[in-house]
UniProtKB/TrEMBL annotation:
This is Enoyl-CoA hydratase/isomerase family protein. Belongs to the enoyl-CoA hydratase/isomerase family. InterPro entries: ClpP/crotonase-like_dom_sf (IPR029045), Enoyl-CoA_hydra/iso (IPR001753), Enoyl-CoA_Hydratase/Isomerase (IPR051683). The keyword Zinc-finger does not apply. Coiled coil: none annotated. The keyword Hydrolase does not apply. Keywords: Plasmid.
Length: 240
């Protein structure tokens, strides 16, 4: 039985985390399947949608630590623990079209990071967000790397040091997510947002995604040039 369901519906790549009995905790096999799908997107894809079966979106990562008594170097641990997750986050960052997440229940650790990496994270009003790693004396630098440019320093420090469970309304204020909806209206709100994007052309959605991804790291002059270039290229498609 697959732990992640991946399918194409029209111009949407839909990814469903399907490990509900384990809180949809991410496994290496799941990450590899998602990565493979994202690296082979159809040129006609307008949207990537990630959601989950069961009560929770994603409660973290399946245990990756070596068994007690195992001898391992820092490089061994990096190869086994750090790099796979950091590479997975990088793949999510580099999705060339809008990345939408539908979040219900718990989004903790990796789940919190995935939600924050989305272009539009839509959460049920009962969803919660947490970075609990320090409860286990784990330095959560992997999640920090994903969140560092998504929310303010104060919000980031609060999440990590307090390990507080953050309700959806507060997560929206902090900038972790973009939209909240009643639990019974989550599916409809996701369909609304995805449906809007499906109406756009590939040059438009890819151009805007490129600008949103690149603009924070560029100067005003560079942003001006980038804005003009993307605008004229996307618009030119209408006159071919």
């Amino acid at each position: 039985m697959s732990e992640v369901l991946i399918s194409t519906k029209g111009n949407v790549l839909e990814i469903i985390l399907d490990r509900p009995d384990k809180g949809n905790a991410l496994t290496p096999v799941m990450a590899e399947a998602i990565t493979a799908a994202l690296k082979s997107l159809s040129p006609e894809t307008r949207v990537v949608l990630m959601k989950a079966n069961g009560p929770d979106f994603c409660t973290g990562r399946s245990a990756a630590m070596p068994a007690p008594g195992t001898r391992a170097t820092a490089l061994d641990l990096r190869n086994a623990i750090s790099d796979p997750v950091l590479d997975f986050y990088e793949v999510l960052r580099e999705i060339p079209v809008p990345f939408i997440t539908a979040v219900q229940g718990k989004a903790a650790g990796v789940g919190c990071a995935i939600a924050a990496l989305a272009d539009v994270a839509i959460a049920a009003d009962g969803a919660t967000f947490q970075v609990p790693e320090m409860n286990h004396d784990i330095a959560p630098t992997l999640v920090l790397n994903a969140l560092a440019d998504r929310i303010s320093r104060a919000a980031l420090a609060r999440l990590v040091f307090t390990r507080d469970v953050i309700p959806a309304a507060e997560a929206k204020v902090l900038g972790l997510i973009g939209i909240t909806a009643p639990a019974d209206g989550l599916e409809a709100e996701v369909a609304r947002v995805v449906g809007q994007l499906e109406k756009n052309s590939v040059p438009t959605v890819r151009g805007i995604k490129a600008f949103i991804s690149m603009s924070p790291e560029t100067s005003f002059a560079s942003r001006k040039e980038l804005a003009a270039l993307i605008n004229c290229v996307a618009t030119a498609e209408k006159f071919r």
